[in-house]
Amino acid sequence: MEKGRIVILGAGESGVGAAMLAQKQGFEVFVSDFGAIATQYKEKLQELNIAFEEKQHDADKILNASEVIKSPGIPDSAPIIKAIKKNKIPVISEIEFAKRYTKGKTVCITGSNGKTTTTMLTYHILKKAGLNVGLAGNIGNSFAALVATTDFEWYVLELSSFMLDDMYEFKADIAVLLNITPDHLDRYDYKLGNYAESKMRITQNQSSEDVFIYCADDEETLKILKSTKTDAKAYPFSIRKKIEEGAYLENNNIHINIHLNDQLTMSITELALQGKHNIYNSMASGIVAKVLDIRNTTIRESMGDFKNIEHRLEHVAKISGVDYINDSKATNVNSTWYALESVGSEVVLIMGGVDKGNDYTMLKDMVHQKVKAIVCLGKDNKRIHEAFEDDVEIIVNTFSAHEAVQVAYHLAKKGDTVLLSPACASFDLFKNYEDRGNQFKTAVKEL
């Protein structure tokens, strides 16, 4: 039987993974990228003998597809997507496609902030408990590539709203929604409600056999829950109130109750991840672990020895009594708010870069309380000066990671924290946020 022709738009990690799986399943495969394809991905496609094009979308080679798999980064407003939809060709995400070819179960994690950390922590606990588990999604590994090459019983997937938008039949066995705060609103007609609906797609197709874990303290989540029906068994978590079934905080202890006779209690001082937002992340991961009947001792150990990802509140060094923290992954205002919330002491904050129309008002109180100086790292720092000139006495402009670290070193005193948490994209001075974080770490180590 003829399988049909699959066209994949975007030849990054997700696109090349989808191509590998489609080829393995016997489809005719064509990959098209409007930009240049990175060498590693081009070599992979050549090695597998998969047809591709770059720096263009040739409509003749695309509009004869039986199905299109698109990269999450391509908006529906792109001309090629409009043409595909006009021709009534189905457009799906790589995650949707991959799920068709695995019997493995999924833990799916989404949220505006904290989803990478929670995904990594959940994977860490499940792996330590001896489950046959894979890690994929927005975190950097292609789910389709894993399905094509391995056979896991469980997959922990980090899902962005863009991925969820192109998922239809997909069902999460365990769905986690951490929070909903304004991000990427340009893709949602600048309406927070549209973005919230997108996030709630994580519960679609769930039955009473499935589980939905959410934050009972998050206003936008509670709002969208009123208008979204889900049959899944719900386990909320909260640091403000006692929760009968789920997780809550009391006297600096996390309590996780899934089965009434088997409660997990753990002091927040034992957690590897510190700061209020990380209590939420740890609770969400802990509920997943309890749902899967993982032993309390394993959960405690895993939550205590977890190492966070690089460039996310990563402790770089302590020099002359000053802590240096790399949070280069904080490319929006919200992430920087969380970073400031999780550090104690007086802070010298290194921030700036390409500003995506940031609204800095939500940072003002936190900056006023904790920040003694701001070191701007970007080509145009005017908006940062305007936003914080009444809250911080010292605001300095710098144009390289080395210069920013040198200035911060002179401004910081023993007991302070120098925090790189830019709230902006990095493309004005760096290749990406990793490059920015690595240059910061190099500069700190040269002090």
Automatic annotation (TrEMBL):
EC numbers listed for it are: 6.3.2.9
Q: Which SUPFAM superfamilies match?
A: MurCD N-terminal domain, MurD-like peptide ligases, catalytic domain, MurD-like peptide ligases, peptide-binding domain
Q: Which GO terms describe its cellular component?
A: cytoplasm
Enzyme class, spelled out? ligase
Keywords on this record? Answer: ATP-binding, Cell cycle, Cell division, Cell shape, Cell wall biogenesis/degradation, Cytoplasm, Ligase, Nucleotide-binding, Peptidoglycan synthesis
Residue span(s) of domain Mur ligase C-terminal: 311-424
* Ligand binding (ATP): 111-117
Location of this chain's protein in the cell:
Cytoplasm
Per its UniProt record, what Gene3D superfamilies does this chain match?
Mur ligase, C-terminal domain (3.90.190.20), Mur-like, catalytic domain (3.40.1190.10), NAD(P)-binding Rossmann-like Domain (3.40.50.720)
Q: What role is this protein assigned?
A: Cell wall formation. Catalyzes the addition of glutamate to the nucleotide precursor UDP-N-acetylmuramoyl-L-alanine (UMA).
Full protein name: UDP-N-acetylmuramoylalanine--D-glutamate ligase
What organism, scientifically named, is this protein from?
Pedobacter frigoris
